[in-house]
Amino acid sequence: MVRALTACLDDLPPQALADVFAEGVLVFGGASLTVGLPQQMEQELGLPIKLAEEPLTCVADGAARALRNRRLLAAYGRN
């Protein structure tokens, strides 16, 4: 996972990379609950790692909120 994240960081534009270094990385999903993983990632990457408040459901919750937002859907040509 650390190698994959490192590869993603290499592809980010400079401004986005600056944001990541300033704000850190938000981890979510089942793997984020692996004991010690966030701490290991923080140590190996040298970046702040934050665990999402609801790591198992935050993506689905966000998608549901986006689908209820008519202005957002309209921006993508969906009514």
The number of domains is: 1
Nearest-integer average pLDDT: 90
Task: Estimate the helix proportion, in percent.
Answer: 55-70%
Number of strands: 2
CATH class: Alpha Beta
**Cα-atom Rg, whole angstroms?**
15 Å
- Gap from first CA to last CA: 38 Å
CATH topology: Nucleotidyltransferase, domain 5
If strands are numbered along the chain, what order do they take across the biggest sheet? 1-2
Structural class: mainly alpha
Order of helices and strands: HHEHEHH
The rough form would be described as: globular
From the coordinates shown, what is the CATH architecture? 2-Layer Sandwich
Task: Specify the CATH homologous superfamily.
Answer: ATPase, nucleotide binding domain
Beta-strand fraction estimate: 5-15%
> What ranges have pLDDT less than 50 throughout 5 or more consecutive residues?
none
Largest sheet: 2 strands, parallel
Q: How many DSSP H or I helices? A: 5
Provide a concise account of the structure shown.
The chain has 79 residues and is mainly alpha-helical. It is built from five helices and two strands; from the N terminus they run H-H-E-H-E-H-H.
Please characterize this protein's 3D structure.
The structure is a single chain. This protein is mostly helical and 79 residues long. It has a two-stranded parallel sheet with strand order 1-2. The chain starts with a helix and ends with a helix. The relative contact order is 0.14. The model has no long low-confidence stretch (mean pLDDT 90). Helix 3 (37-45) links the parallel strand 1 (25-27) and strand 2. It has one domain (2-75): Nucleotidyltransferase, domain 5 (2-Layer Sandwich). It contains 5 helices and 2 strands; from the N terminus they run ααβαβαα.
